[in-house]
Amino acid sequence: MTFCTPTVYTRPVHEVSVDVLEEMVQRALDGLPEPLRGRIDNLAILVEDSASPQDNARAGTRGGTLLGVYRGIPLTARGSGYGMTMPDRIVIFQRPLERLARDEKHLEELVRHTVLHEIAHHFGISDARLRELGAY
User: Fold this and answer.
1) What is the Rg, in whole angstroms, of the alpha carbon atoms belonging to the chain?
2) Nearest in space to 123 (alpha carbons), one of 76, 83, 59, 90
3) Does 4 map to a domain?
4) According to the model, what pLDDT value does residue 4 have?
5) How many domains does the chain have?
6) Is residue 99 pLDDT above 90, yes or no?
7) Which of 28, 54, 61, 134 is most buried, with most CB under 10 Å away?
């Protein structure tokens, strides 16, 4: 009798330290045109390992890969009563980005795209509108 161990093919993972990923996030922010950067208000950007089940449920990913999330009140929805509130948050999920990346250059591109996508939500741009603009 012959036993065979199935071969499991997985994509290579391009792992970096959280410090390196945070530097990539900062470069993405630094690359924004000054008029946009100047309009970002009361926003913190964090890096976490991966999305929580609640993040996936809110985003409706249903088995998809969530690379980042915006948690807050978009600038377009803030009224005169908005103030003295904790910062909105953009969370970038490190492990899913690393799993998708072919190499460090590709990882930086994925991080940049994710940061810009979540910044768009901060400015009140919906996923539907991003699709119309070809940003997906």
Assistant:
1) 18
2) 76
3) no
4) 42
5) 1
6) yes
7) 28
Say how far apart CA 89 and CA 77 lie, in whole Å: 15
User: Which residue reads 């904790």 in tokens?
Assistant: 86
* Residue range 51-73: mean pLDDT, rounded: 86
CATH number of the CATH domain containing 119: 3.30.2010.20
State the residue range of the domain holding 122. Answer: 18-74+85-132
In a domain, 13, yes or no: no
